[in-house]
Amino acid sequence: MQIITTHRSADFDGFASVIASTVLYPDAVPILPKAINPNVKAFLSIHKDLFETQTISDIDLEKVTRLIVVDTSKWSRLEPMGSLKKNENLDIHVWDHHQNPCDFNASWKCHEKKGANITLMIREIKKRDILLTPMQATLFLTGLYEDTGSLTFSSTTAEDAYAAGYLLENKADLNILSTFLQPAYGEKQRNILFEMIKTAPRIKINHFSVSINSVVIEGHVNNLSLVINMYRDILNVDAAFGIFVHKDNDRCIVIGRSNVDDINVGSIMRSMGGGGHPGAGSAMIKSASPDALKDWLLELLKGNQQSSVMISDLMSYPVFSVTSDTPMNDVANLLKEKGCTGLPVVDDEQLVGVISRRDFQKIKKSSQLKSPVKAFMSTRNITIGPDKSPMEAARIMVKHDIGRLPVVKDGKIIGIMSRSDAMLYFYDLLPD
Ligand SMILES: [Mn+2]
């Protein structure tokens, strides 16, 4: 006998993966844990006849030869299975999209990081050309959307989006799906936010107001970053951090949001083993007390200003420049050769102007190509200092609609900050 099961507090992704397994393993019996999420329960109350499942107490565990586990790779996440865990001859298949190590002694597994587990199973269903009913497609898409926040969470992969497309092709019904999907800010999220607001501690670090709050959470809660965002808004602090302590395992998730350039959440979270970008980020930490995490965060926050990225870390140099008496056709050749859209004009190390491709439109007759660049260059010198932040550079570029900013120190040009340099920073593509 083969049985399929998923983690306790089964969510839509877990339940959908159990049903998808019945398609891939037609002889296996789907077993649902007794604890399932309320929205899955609501879905089942209507679809019970379509998706028949059993509970572990309906099964003679002695007869089980194969266990198919979906949406988890930990024994501890399963409902107790009595003698099964000790059965050395048990053949185990695992399908999981979580990043943690697998503690099943599996004969076969599909363990890849994806936004949703159902994505892995759809890959196989597609490969085997198995026809799905619209109800199956709807359930699978609900699981996919729940785990990926309708494809918006940063954990979403391209394959998740392709799988969603495949399910829509197979007539997944978005109206039914939206009835059962929990809203991003639901009861669970609200309770956590209220819990945090009750204490709402605030501290000053390097002139910035910061709140670090820890909360114990039960089961899986989506959209905690949304909660932190609202929390930061309500408290009106420069940065807010939530330390979420999972009641049922020894993990803490730290989520941060910052509204100021000087507190780079991405770099703080990278120091804690996580990731993110300057305004938002998170880290998952095992076996740590919330108090120790708070101290660690404080330490990182105090050191963060020194280590925050400055223009001098991002700018390009040496700077290719021309002198103000360079003829325009030489400038044109240089722009072509360097493949850039503009060049600073520098006399005696002092920035005197900027010439860009746009300025060539001012040329009316070919003889003007022999004229010096100073006749056409822009002398509206918008520059930035090397100790300024990338956010400041972005603001100036947007305000003046320019793609390149000369970096000037004591009147001398020392580098160029371009749009692509800024992009590297904002998309977190800088080498560590
Ligand atoms: Mn999942």
Count all strands and give the number: 15
- Classified by CATH, the class of the largest domain is Alpha Beta
Number of helices: 14
Question: Which strands sit side by side, in order, in the main sheet?
Answer: 6-7-8-9-11-10
What does this structure look like?
With 432 residues, the protein is an alpha/beta fold. The protein is 35% helix and 20% strand. It contains 14 helices and 15 strands. Helix 8 (224-235) links the parallel strand 7 (208-217) and strand 8. Helix 3 (117-127) crosses helix 5 and helix 4 packs antiparallel against helix 5. The structure holds manganese (II) ion. Manganese (II) ion binds at residues 13, 71, 97, 116-117, 147.
Brief account:
This protein is α/β, with parallel strands linked by helices and 432 residues long.
Write the layout of secondary structure elements.
Layout: E1 2-6, H1 12-24, E2 29-30, H2 38-47, E3 66-70, E4 91-96, E5 108-111, H3 117-127, H4 134-148, H5 158-169, H6 174-180, H7 187-199, E6 203-205, E7 208-217, H8 224-235, E8 239-246, E9 251-258, H9 265-271, E10 275-277, E11 280-286, H10 290-307, H11 311-314, H12 328-338, E12 342-347, E13 350-356, H13 390-400, E14 404-409, E15 412-418, H14 419-426
Parallel strand pairs: 1-2, 1-3, 3-4, 4-5, 7-8
Antiparallel strand pairs: 6-7, 8-9, 9-11, 10-11, 12-13, 14-15
Residues 13, 71, 97, 116-117, 147 line the site of manganese (II) ion.
